[in-house]
Design goal:
By secondary structure, the protein is of the alpha/beta class. It contains twelve helices and eleven strands. β7, α5 and β8 form a beta-alpha-beta unit.
């Protein structure tokens, strides 16, 4: 989520899907395995959205079953995860949606974090309406016409304005500034988590009700509930530099991996595998769907994916 929000949960050897509010700041809850000298251990940060859980599930499975490492996972919010990574409380972040301030501080200035390469997935945040509503009202896909439909998007939570449904308050979004700066008759309403947001979207879709939501791709739900993006003012480099003055769309972001600098230098085969880990949106969605919709455990989903994709993951092995 990741999120820039994005635009997504685990502890010990079990990876659990969040159903409550955004992940708590757990940077002080260091893994008992982090920085264990001489031990073949790896600690991975897990964000609360299911795509991030899919990355970690597959990486953990391969580290354990192919390379013989002991893997711990720690639930950390997006920004605190950078602090935890810098301090060595976690060894790697496998999906970052763009945090230029943290990158400047830790990668460029302190040099306590290094880039781990592309994940292979391009993330994009935007505002979306259900495709069934967009087909009935094609002009709703232009932000200039949103006020025309504000009444259609009202809910008891939006206080007489149109509702713009967001996920977790912990996600990094520009939505409140966009509503203000574009002079839209809407109110941002947080569902509380990705899981809660998905539940609301599914309920709206079941009843064929109109809704406007902050959403992101890739995300498995888009296969179940087709959504059409609303065109915001075009994104240009630097248009989102001042959080209070943002009046443009979100960028398309090649999602990145980051490693603790000490781990990158001394993490051996584990660090090499994580640097080599690169898959597609389709791969990530395949695992995400098994976790979120088919209700497989992350470990079961990872095993199923690994069993069916030898030709891809074998290239990642040192």
């Amino acid at each position: 989520m990741r999120i820039r929000t994005m635009p997504a949960v685990a502890a010990g050897c079990a990876l659990l899907l969040l159903t409550g509010c955004g992940a708590a700041d757990m940077t002080k809850q260091a893994s008992p395995f982090a920085n264990a000298r001489g031990a073949r251990t790896v600690t991975l940060s897990v964000q609360s959205w299911v795509g991030a859980q899919a990355n970690v599930a597959v990486a953990q499975y391969l580290l354990e079953h192919e390379l013989g490492y002991r893997v711990d996972t720690v639930q950390v919010d997006e920004v605190p995860a950078w602090d935890a990574l810098s301090q060595g409380r976690v060894d790697a972040i496998l999906e970052d949606w763009g945090h230029p301030e943290q990158e400047q501080r830790y990668v460029e200035d302190k040099k306590t974090i290094v880039k781990g390469g592309d994940l292979g997935v391009t993330g994009h945040i935007g505002w979306f309406v259900p495709t069934y509503f967009a087909k009935q009202h094609p002009d709703v896909t232009d932000w200039k016409n949103l006020n025309k439909y504000a009444e259609r998007f009202r809910t008891p939570e939006s206080g007489g304005k149109g509702q713009l449904l967001d996920g977790s308050p912990s996600y990094v979004t520009n939505d409140k500034a966009l509503v203000k700066n574009l002079e839209l008759d809407y109110r941002v309403v947080f569902a509380g988590s990705e899981a809660a947001q998905i539940t609301q979207i599914q309920q709206f879709a079941k009843e064929k009700k109109p809704f406007l939501t902050y959403w992101y791709t890739p995300q498995w739900l888009s296969e179940q509930v087709p959504m059409t993006e609303v065109r915001l003012p075009p994104y240009e480099e630097g248009c989102d530099a001042d959080p209070e003055k943002v009046a443009c769309a979100y960028p398309h972001t090649p999602l990145q991996k980051y490693l603790n600098a000490d781990f990158a230098r001394g993490g051996g085969k584990a660090a090499e595998l994580l640097r080599n880990f690169e898959w597609t949106t389709e791969d990530q969605n395949e695992v995400s769907l098994m976790i979120a919709e088919q209700k497989l455990s992350p470990r079961e989903a990872a095993k199923k994916w690994v069993d069916n994709h030898h030709s891809l993951w074998e290239k990642w092995l040192p």
